[in-house]
Specification:
Elements: H1 3-25, E1 28-29, H2 34-42, H3 44-55, E2 58-61, E3 66-69, H4 92-105, E4 113-115, H5 116-129, H6 138-154, E5 157-161, H7 164-170, E6 175-178, H8 211-221, E7 224-226, H9 232-240, H10 242-253, E8 256-260, E9 263-267, H11 283-298, E10 303-305, H12 306-319, H13 321-324, H14 327-330, H15 335-346, E11 349-351, E12 355-358, H16 376-384
Helix pairs in contact: 1-2, 4-5, 4-6, 6-7, 8-9, 11-12, 11-15
């Protein structure tokens, strides 16, 4: 093979990897992600085959969208809720409104465009039919706008004239364009034949007999996995096929695998294939990072009682009062819960009735040792050394 052919093959492999990463980050790609969508369409056959053989995921690629249909996450995986613009998780009511909006958009005879007022009227009518009253207070309108914003973010709706936010604050009219082809693919599986919502999240019965695929899924969707949470088959794959697992994750998704006695971590050296950045911006994440450091310094990663956690938070709050303000006074009942929720999302800690179980991987966030200030003799020697 010539060097030009090798270069072309290497570029194609990089493009497929970038397309796969785009699908993991945004399982529904529409015109809102035009470049990524074009790359997925270009490599659609190879991507379909790779996702099926590697993760047992189904990829739908059409002219105007691509949808990666993932399997249900494992029960021990951290929750990944939909979030508002201020990063707060969706409430049950917001999820209800999102479902009603999708149903309203699928009403037979609906066109490709709809006024936001007509859409809201349909949602309120459908809600009343099933015993879910939806009023016209400002909080209720904002919740509706949040749900509509999620559909806009997915590319299912487009604000053609006006904005959803304008309707929420001032009831300003807006014209929305519906991406009708993608709408039926929002759900991972049809609802017909299901008797309960839990069935929608039930793992495929054949996946238990596919430890390679199930382990890859866990590492791709929840990068930090504990060894005790793996099945016997998954632990065997991790031990016997580490080299192959490392290759598959690197070639297909650009992930690096780190295996230790406590479990495994699949991390992204590029740092952009994640929905939760850590460390990151915001005081809660800063507190979470420093709390980990405190707990790791006080003891090897293990269970810290809630009294120890509260004492560490109090000390940190006093130590950083100038820059933080009094977080414990401002959020007396929620600071610990918010911090624990962040650490739980990352898999770095788990709340138990007795306290906080810190994963050994948290040791990577141990504060750097503080070096003693150089003595006068050392400083003089450094100046004299050529």
């Amino acid at each position: 093979m010539t060097s030009a052919a090798i270069g072309t093959a290497s570029q194609a492999a990089r493009d497929r990897r970038e397309a796969a990463r785009a699908l993991l980050s945004h399982p529904l790609l529409t015109a809102a992600h035009a470049e990524d969508l074009a790359l997925v369409r270009l490599h659609a056959p190879a991507l379909r085959s790779m996702f099926k053989s590697t993760l047992d995921y189904h990829l739908v690629v059409e002219s105007t969208f691509a949808r990666l249909v993932k399997g249900p996450v494992s029960p021990d995986a951290p929750a990944r809720p939909a979030r508002r613009a201020d990063n707060a998780a969706f409430t049950p009511m917001t999820y209800t409104l999102l479902s009603l909006l999708c149903a309203a958009l699928l009403v037979p005879g609906a066109g490709d465009q709809i006024l936001i007022s007509a859409l809201i009227d349909q949602v309120r009518s459908d809600g009343a039919t099933i015993g879910v009253p939806i009023g016209d207070t400002l909080p209720e309108r904002r919740a509706l706008v949040t749900a509509i914003g999620q559909l806009i973010g997915w590319g299912v709706l487009t604000e053609t004239d006006g904005t959803a936010g304008g309707w929420g604050e001032r009831r300003d009219e807006a014209l929305l364009t519906i991406h009708r082809a993608a709408l039926p693919h929002l759900l991972a599986r049809p609802l017909s034949g299901l008797g309960h919502a839990d069935q929608l999240l039930a793992p495929h019965p054949d996946l238990a007999d596919q430890p390679r695929r199930s382990l890859r899924r866990k590492l791709v969707e929840n990068p930090l996995v504990r060894r005790e949470e793996l099945t016997d088959g998954e632990r065997d794959v991790l031990s016997r096929e580490r080299s192959e697992l490392t290759r598959v994750l690197a070639e297909n998704f650009g992930l690096a695998l780190e295996v230790r006695a406590e479990g495994a971590l699949a991390y992204d050296p590029a740092g952009d294939l994640t929905d939760v950045t850590f460390p990151g911006n915001g005081r809660i994440k800063q507190v979470a990072l420093l709390l980990l450091g405190e707990l790791v310094e006080r003891r090897s990663p293990a269970a810290a009682t809630w009294d120890e956690v509260d004492a560490a938070l109090s000390e940190l709050n006093a130590r950083h009062a100038t820059s933080w303000g009094d977080l414990l006074t401002e959020h007396p009942g929620s600071l610990r819960g918010d911090v624990v929720a962040v650490l739980g999302e990352l898999g770095l800690a788990r709340a138990t009735p007795a306290g906080l179980l810190v994963h050994p991987a948290a040791a990577r966030y141990r504060p750097l040792p503080r070096a003693a200030a150089p003595t006068r003799a050392v400083r003089r020697l450094e100046r004299e050394t050529p």
